[in-house]
Structure formats: C-alpha cells, structure tokens
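hiii so my PI (J.) wants the whole complex modelled not just the main chain, which honestly fair. so below is everything: two entries, each one labled with what it is. i double checked the lines twice but i was tired so who knows lol
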Amino acid sequence: MEIFISSIIRGLAIGSTYALIAVGFVIIYRATQVINFAQPALMILGAYFTSWFVFSIGFPFPIAVLAAMVVLAAIGVTTERIALRPLVGQPVFSAAMVTVGVFIVLTVVASRLIGPDILTVGDPWQLNRLVVGDIIIFHVDIAKIVVSLSAIALVGALLQYSRVGLAMRATSLDQETALAQGIPVGRMFSLAWALSAALTGLAGMLIGTGAGGIEATTALIALKALPVIILGGLDSIKGSVIAGLVIGVAESLTRSYQPEYAPFLGTNVDIIVPYLILVVSLMVRPYGLFGTKEVTRV
Amino acid sequence: MTSRSAQQSLSRGRPMLYADYRAEQAIWNTTSKKVVSLLLFIVALSLPMFLNRDLIGVFALVIVYAIGGIGLNIISGYAGQISLGHAFFMGLGAYTAAVVGGVSTNLVRGFELDVLIWLPLAGLVPAAIGWLIAPLAARVRGLYLAILTLGLLFIGEHIFKEATWMSGGGGVGRAPTTVVLAGFNIYQRRTIFGVDFSAIGMFYLFCLLLLVVMGILARNLARSRQGRSFAAVRDRDIAAEVMGVPLMQTKRLAFTISSFYAGIAGALLTVVLGFTTPERWNLLLSIDFLAVVLIGGVATISGPIAGAMFVVLLPRIIEWAARILPFISTTVGSNQFLNVFQLQRILFGAMIVLFLVLEPRGLYGIWIRVRNYFKAWPFSY
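here's the output for the full assembly
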C-alpha cells in the first residue's frame, strides 16, 4: 500500500510536468497548427538558464526561475520570427520540419552549454521529505504538482478571461477573420511561442530538481508530452492536464510493479509506457479525450 | 497523332516539345538526361578503381543513404506524410537480415542464408509491419503519423534492446549479415578483369546496382497511377477523395513501400558499418534521413541521391576543415568552441531550416534554377 501511494504521488508529480510541456505544445498548435518538435531543446535550455542564473549570477531561486522563463520566451520569439514566420501559408509539413531543424540546432547549443557533466538547478527542495505515517513524500514532488498546475491555471485564465487571450483564441479559430477584426495575428504567433517556450522552460527546471539533474540527453523526456497531447486532444489544455497526470501515474505504477509482476517485458519498460498509451489512444479515440474532431470542407 | 519520323524531327529542333503524353512522362524524357545519367553511372561504377578503401566505404554509405532517402521520399515527399520512424524500419530490416543471413554465436541467432533470401525479407518484414501500423495514423490528417512513428521509434528501441537473440542486447550489438549471393561471397577482396577490388569495393558495386534498380522502380511508381494518387493526397486530400482516390489505402501503400525501402537500406547499412548496437536506430538517424530528403529535394528521385551525398560527405568535409580552422576541435569534450560532431549537427539543423525557408525544393531546386539560367542565357528570363 505504501508503495502504491508513493508511486501515485510520484506519478502525479512527473505527470504534471508532462502536462506543462504538453500545454506548451497545445498553445503553439492552436495558434499555428504546427507541432513544435523543438520543444525538448527549449526544455533543457530552461533548466540550464535556471542553473546559470542561480550559480553564476547568484540570483535567489524564484527570481532565477522567472529570469530563465524570460530568456526562454525571448528564444521562442526569435525562433518564431526567424524560422517559422517565413513559412506562414505554407503547408504544415514544412513548418513542422523547420521545427525539427530548430530542435537539432538548439540541442547542440544546449549540450555545448551544459557540457559533459550533470547539472543541478539549485532548487530549494533538494531531497527533503515529509513522512506521513509510513508514506514518504518528497517535497520536490509536491513542488512539481503545485508549480505546474498553477502555471497551467494561470495560462488557462489568461486565455479565457483576458483581452489578449480572446485575441489568441480568435487567431486560432480563423487567422484571416481575426486579421480582419484588427487583431495583430503575427504578434499573436510571437506571443504563443513566448508563452509556450516559457512554460516548457519552467518544466525543464522542474525536471532538473531533486535527485534528477539535467544532462544533454534529458531533452528526450519532453517527447513524452506528445503521447499526452494525443491522449488529451491536440487542441485542449484541459485534456493535456488530465492526460498528463494519467500518463505520469501509469508510468510510475509500471516502474513500481512491472519488475515484480511482468519481468519478461525487460528493464525500463516504464520509459515506453507513454508511447504504448499513444498507440492505444490512436486506435480507440484518434482525436483524444477532449480534442475537437476535425470537420473537413471541400 | 504525329508519325514517328515527324516526332523525331520535331524533337530535334525543339527539345522540350512533346508530341504525346507518353514521351513527356518517360523516365529519361530528354537526351541530356539520358547522357548525364549514363555518365554518372559510369563514374560511380569506376569509383572503386580510384578511391582507397576508406573513401569507398564513405561512398557505399552515400548509396545506402540514398536508398533509404528514396524510401522516405515516397511517404514524405510524394505522399506528404511526415515519418520520424524511418530508423525503426531500418533497424527492423537490419535485424531481419542479420538473423536470416548472419552467423550464430552463443549470444545471437543466425541462419547464414543467401542474399537472395535475406534481401527480400529485409524489405518485406518492415513493409508488413508498416502495413499493419499505418491505419492507426492514416485515419487522421496532419502530423499524427509523425507522432505515431516517433512513438514507434522508442517502442522499437526497447524491443531491439530486449530481444538479445536478435540484436545482441543494448550496448552490446551484433555483427552484420553475411553477403553471400548464390555461393559467391560479395564482401570479399577479388580481382575482376585484372582490376583489384577491395571487399568494401565489391559491396559498393552491389549497393550501386541495387540503388539503380530501386531508384528506377521508385521513379516508375511515382509516374504510375499510384504515384499520381500519392501526389493528389499530398496536395489536397479532400479533393483527392472526391475524385475517387481512397485516402486510407493510398497512405497505407505509401507507408508500406517506404518501410520496404527503409528495411533494405537498414540491412545494407549494417554491412557497411560493421558491428551495430540497438541504440543506432534512434531519432538522430531518422532526422538524418529527413535531412537527406529535405536538402536533396522533396518528391524527386535524384534529390535524395544528392542529399545523401551532402549528408554523408559533410562530416568528412568538416573533419578536413577542422585541421585548418582553429576553433573546431576534433576531440569530444575539449574546451574549443565546437567539436566536429556538434558542428556537423548544427549545420544539419541550420541547413534543414535554410532550405525549407529559402529553397523548399532543395538541391534539386538549385539545380533547376542554374539550369534555367543557362537555358535562357544571355537573357535573364
């Protein structure tokens, strides 16, 4: 029972960071119909800059996180302006491939910055833990859940209730009509990339907390957000949150119980659990739990 | 209809004038294309006589990349569906070949069968898996196939690592298949017509012949009814469906054929590289092939060949440049600005972005521009 509850908590923690990355994907998808494959690189850059602001500049941790998010937003805007804006009106194929190119460039930059060592982000939670009865809860897991979900809630509220959010939703609904209503569509694209990159950077920081640390190959964790957006629906923030938590818990439970009950599957099966869920989800419900079913017109 | 002699006289004076559709759609529709293709083939054939073993290995790699690139171009270029799982199908082909044609050790299985058996199987097994998987993503439009194939890549890597009898296990790997064609070992040093061919040189020739066959097959596919329906699905899927092109089946066929090519390329790749570990079939390899297609030229056959040359030779050129330029280091982990591997990766990424933004038709497009410039020379248009 203790194992069960602590793996649920660990699953919710990692799942909430997946949800955070997934929301980054969803925001860009809603604005430009492109899946941004550069997201993993943005994620580790976020962790790197947090670490850099803490250790090299000497900012207190919360300020360092915010500063890193600002830097990431700037990287996102620059990327969009240089690489993606020229492709507006081109097929999504080209734009998605451009993000793959950006992924490669930024990954090299990140691994050059990080170097061969494992980097810590300088978080205050470290390995502190809370003992409730027999259950051990790491502070960092609580922090992951609280920070991720409040960041997502903040962005959700921004999209739902603010004037800018309304403009962004209008842009995602129909770019040309939005432009005709006087919405600066180009600026909305920039804003989407800025928001998305900042959130992804924050997720990178969370993944680097606690015992984790960040190295260049950590980037691939961000790809687990792709099953999340398929399960949740490509354009749904609510779907991302729920699917993120589901996938996180499924992964964590597999890690706890698979070696005992299904050893024939081999080691580290938990790594591929999100992708198995992806395959099943495409089979059963291709538009995801909360995704909008596409209506095609000639 | 004009008579045959009238056609010939027409085409002599007006090289781009076609009197019937068949002539326009021919593989080599102009005389210059015929001549250039033949010359290139002769040059490629004679390469093993001039180059040392190391360089001929690089060119064998170019050819393998070209075969894989042509395969990816069928699904991504002609049918317009992005696949990030090309490396998975390559791995599948490689292990099929290694199990059917390889040598057994105490760790891995191998049946030591003939090329004539393992080569088709190396294509057919991935094709069958591709055929089974395609419907999952083909139901939905857009980038779903990219995500599905990405997932496949990770699931595949896990299976490859765990199936020790097949791959030797993670971090260990296994030796490639043997290349024995009807009792004749291709991967062996031989003297033919008084010319000395190294083992890799012989294998290079084998790959070259395969490239020619598979290239022509792909070109024929592209100008067939199926190829036209691929293009229709890519350009406007709803319109294609209205005109009676079955969307699902077309996407499925493109994916299956692409997987076939990937499997063959994977099998050949392991022979060129030698010992391979399951970690080789990862996202970076898939991206290499996307680079081959995007840099070479989307929806062409000659494009991936040029792209393969670019992608495979670029690291060599960078290594060579590293000796001259001080800010690039040749060793990993030193304090120089960038090492060779990083520079090569960053150039790949930048090239993909630059080509898509500035010249979406790739190297092929640049060639078309140069050709058109000289065609109209000395007038600018």
